[in-house]
Design goal:
heterodimer; A: about 260 residues; mainly alpha; MetI-like fold; 2 domains; globular; B: about 375 residues; alpha+beta; Rossmann fold; OB fold (Dihydrolipoamide Acetyltransferase, E2P); 6-stranded mixed sheet; 5-stranded antiparallel sheet; 18 strands; elongated
Chain lengths: ~260, ~375
């Protein structure tokens, strides 16, 4: 009972701030001292979901960027996390520090240099350039999460599978990946959300060509249309919620917990 | 069990960061044999097993199984199966899927796979467990599933790495019986690595004893008890009585002047040993040979035995384990009879040159 109440309280505290946003998105003006808006409208949402709307385009753009940078971060983070988590080698501490640098150092300090390089490579203002620059904050998170997962991973499972007749690829596919899956979900969640919400890097490198949802949101905010801004803001929360629900289900599956460390 | 060498290990050597782990190991395993690789922790027995399984590459040496050299052969193509200390059932698969894991990799169809897995589970007395998750099993059950999973692929050599050390004592006895029965039913050649000499004695036809990376003696359990190669081996198997003597064929002259007769002739200075359970203690002088007058200095009742410490006139200390029915008081005089067939000796060597006997139970 107490647990239930606590749970409801937590949910309320987490989601109450969203309530005014939701109200704004369907209100036609909402001013002090009105407790609830006097007039309602579906116009903002109609504008969001209209075929070919900028918001929808931004949504897909964001999805592609976040999806690609998560996949790439995973491709780098899995082997890197394994090396950091399982192996002992000189300079391991230094490598971990270097990995953290993109998080510690403000992107403002590095963006000029990055942009210069990307322009020379012809990647400035392209989707590929944005995906590449989003790896800057996503790879450290992914690698650190996965290294702590691998630190608790028993390689005995792999030896066992090998002796039962599995080739290294089969071991990876049938044993290692299923066992570290919860860690992958957590790492991917981090990476996806970081990329999804990234504004500054997209703003500089995208050069107004790559318009992800945060860019659209920023433009709408500057435009002063509170209702539309609220609708876009609510839209931008949707994938995070879906991802969270999906991953909490994956994390609750006890069988998958075998390889999950202290993430 | 045949007498043909089925698996041969020749000159196997492995160093870790310059420190020798296994040194020039030569070993033959016969088909259908149960061989125990015994030794204190850190003696190289697990490294040997890992080299056999292909998980560790030897620095030099040859491993052959059933006429085929295994140098450079990856673990999955060695026709060996491994059971490790913690069972290591794949937690994302059900018990049935765990057992069928190796069959699935061999491309055996689903129906056949399930039939074989169920039959194997029945053999380890876990019928009806196929849909359980590994997390729901007790330690003993998990270890039985691990055994079933390894046996179902019909390996040429089954490798057990301390398979029972994580289980409690009563369960361990049952598991030993089960493994022995499974081995007899399937006829699989079995190599068991253990630090527990009791377990090695119960589980194996022959025991290979290792110390500090060297193979010290390979023999039947009986021989290791009765005819150890040296004092270190004898101590590892619970030998407690050691004394110096000078041998002249079947006669042994003790420093105090006492003479003993032995069935195992020796020449020159020797170290003599006799197992404490082989010393008979008599209240009266019933026979003439090998009888030493002793005084009892200590007595301990252990339930199944009475452990006595004896002191001879010449100051020699001996330990004797006598049946619990025999009662002796401290300070009492008696006669210790040392049967000639129980007196074993090996040439005296400077004991310091031998590695110290490390604790029998280790991590």
């Amino acid at each position: 009972m107490t647990r239930k109440v606590a749970l409801i309280l937590i949910i309320a505290v987490l989601f109450l701030p969203f309530l005014p946003l939701v109200v704004w998105s369907v209100a036609k003006g909402w001013y002090f001292p009105q407790l609830v808006p006097q007039q309602w409208t579906g116009a903002h949402w109609a504008a969001v979901v209209a075929p070919g709307s900028r918001v929808l385009q931004g949504f897909w753009q964001s999805l592609v960027v976040a999806g690609l940078s998560t996949a790439l971060a995973l491709a780098v983070g899995l082997p890197a996390g394994r090396a950091l988590g399982l192996m002992e080698f000189p300079g391991k501490g230094a490598i971990k520090l270097v990995l953290l640098l993109p998080i510690i150092v403000s992107p403002l300090a590095t963006l000029m240099g990055i942009q210069f390089v990307l322009i020379r490579l012809g990647l400035n203002g392209t989707l590929a350039g944005v995906v590449l620059v989003h790896l800057l904050p996503t790879i450290p998170y992914m690698t650190l999460v996965l290294s702590s997962v691998y630190a608790n991973f028993d390689t005995g499972y792999e030896a066992q599978a090998r002796s039962l007749g599995a080739s290294p690829i089969q071991v990876l596919w049938r044993v290692t990946l299923p066992l570290v899956a919860p860690g992958i979900v957590v790492g991917a969640l981090f990476a996806f959300l970081i990329s999804w919400n990234e504004f500054l890097l997209t703003f500089f490198v995208g050069g107004g060509q790559v318009l992800t949802l945060p860019m659209i949101l920023f433009t709408a905010l500057q435009g002063g249309n509170t209702g539309l801004t609220a609708a876009i803001a609510v839209t931008s929360v949707i994938p995070a919620l879906i991802f969270l629900l999906f991953s909490s289900r994956a994390l609750h599956d006890d069988a998958a917990m075998g390889g999950l460390g202290d993430v | 069990m045949s007498n043909r060498a089925y698996c041969t290990i020749q000159g196997l050597t492995k160093r870790f960061r310059g420190l020798p782990a296994v040194c020039d190991l030569w070993l033959e395993i016969y088909q259908g044999e149960r061989l125990a690789l015994l030794g204190p922790s850190g003696c190289g027995k697990s490294t040997t097993l890992q080299m056999l399984a292909g998980l560790v590459t030897p620095d030099s040496g040859q491993i052959r199984l059933d006429g085929r050299s295994l140098n450079g052969v990856p673990p999955e193509r060695r026709a060996m199966a491994l059971v490790l200390q913690r069972g290591l059932l794949f937690p994302h698969l059900s018990v049935g899927e765990n057992v069928a894991f190796g069959l699935k990799l061999r491309g055996i169809n689903r129906a056949e796979r399930e039939a074989q897995a169920m039959a194997m589970l029945a053999q380890v007395q876990l019928t009806g467990f196929e849909n359980r998750r590994p997390g729901e099993l007790s330690g003993g059950q998990a270890q039985r599933v691990a055994l079933a999973r390894s046996l179902v692929i019909r390996p040429k050599l089954l490798l057990l790495d301390e398979p029972l050390s994580a289980l409690d004592a009563t369960l361990r006895g049952d598991m030993q019986d089960l493994i022995l029965r499974l081995q007899e039913d399937t006829g699989v050649t079995l190599l068991i690595v253990t630090h527990d000499q009791q377990e090695a004695v119960v589980m194996s036809h022959r025991i290979a004893l290792m110390f500090d990376g060297y193979l010290r003696q390979i023999d039947t359990p009986e021989a290791l008890y009765q005819r150890p190669n040296d004092a270190t081996v004898a101590r590892f198997f619970g030998g407690v009585n050691f004394f110096e003597a000078v041998g002249d064929r079947h006669r042994l002259r003790l420093p105090g002047g006492d003479m003993l007769t032995t069935d195992h002739p020796q020449q020159g200075p020797v170290q003599v040993t006799i197992r404490p359970e082989r010393i008979h203690l008599l209240a009266e002088q019933l026979c003439g040979t090998n009888l030493l007058p002793v005084t009892i200095t200590q007595t301990r009742f252990t339930g199944t035995h009475r452990h006595l410490t004896l002191s001879t006139v010449a100051g020699l200390e001996l330990q004797a384990w006598v049946p619990p029915g025999q009662t002796f008081a401290v300070g009492q005089s008696a006669f210790a009879h040392l049967p000639p067939d129980a007196i074993w000796s090996f040439p005296s060597v400077d004991e310091l040159s031998l590695p110290e006997p490390v604790s029998i139970r280790g991590g």
